[in-house]
Amino acid sequence: MKTFYRFAFIGAFGLFCLSPLAAMADGVVKVPPGNRYEEQPQVPGASTRRTKGARTTFDAKYEKVRDLLATDKKLVGKIKAAARAYGIDPMHIVGAIVGEHTYNVDAYDRLQSYYIKAASYAGNTFRFGYKDESITQFLDRPQFDECDTKTGSYASWSCVERIWDKRFRGETVDGVSFPNNRFSAVFFQPFYAGQTFGLGQINPLTALMLTDKVSRVSGYPKLDANDAASVYQAIMDPDISLAYMAAILRNSIEVYRSVAGMDISDNPGLTATLYNVGNPEVRAAALAARNRGGKAQLPEENYYGWLVNDKLSELRPLLR
Hints:
Distance between the termini: 36 Å
Largest sheet: 3 strands, mixed
Order of helices and strands: EEHHHHHEEHHEEHHHHHEHHHH
Strand content: under 5%
Strand order of the largest sheet: 1-2-7
Low-confidence stretches: 1-20
Radius of gyration: 19 Å
């Protein structure tokens, strides 16, 4: 493996490479298609162990999800419709689905299986929270008062996540010891780590952040953190989850354009990388800081996005 690989979160775009860049009329740099790395960055050990534990391989899982897309024209039609609604190339959605089902979970054989799985969450009673404290009780703490002034679900939940990292993560506050872990992992996994979240493997917190956009564009009801079952049902229902996937991908493209001055809309491997690692604002800001006052550098794909770009010649025809 190349020595440039340091951590599993290489997809955080913390490393960059020099490449010829094309500046657009508005000064935004157009990131070209394709991978920056010649070889695939190392796959994290956790993903490898899960795959071996299921007695399968990454190649087999990739072929299974590719074949699902090749044979399920209804699913492909829904992917195209979601992409049109959010103004993105449908290949971005295909890339995220392929990445998730190759490295995180196995694909079902039929789209109908995803609908059945989603329906199983209807009417369930569970909540988001940590120990005896619900998410609502937690957010009533005075540390989050500044988030009350934020407008919209994305700004509000982004504020909450920042406060968590700054004031609570790995700390003891008011006698409560909080884990040194992501906010979403602590408060939004009521079952167990690695819980399957449907076709797009969407994190409940990510869905809550983008619920305003999805409600506005697609007309679905806004999600409420106090109704955990409805959040799970939404992100596991293929129709609704495709809208959230498109919103997540569109958001990453917009953030990289506005914050880092990079247009990544022609590179599904980069949007897949961001879909995998999350926090596009932090990563775009890091790239912008590195490029400030120097020669512009391109963002790079991680192992997950690398596969998507490497397989485009097989995946692109699935959309015809």
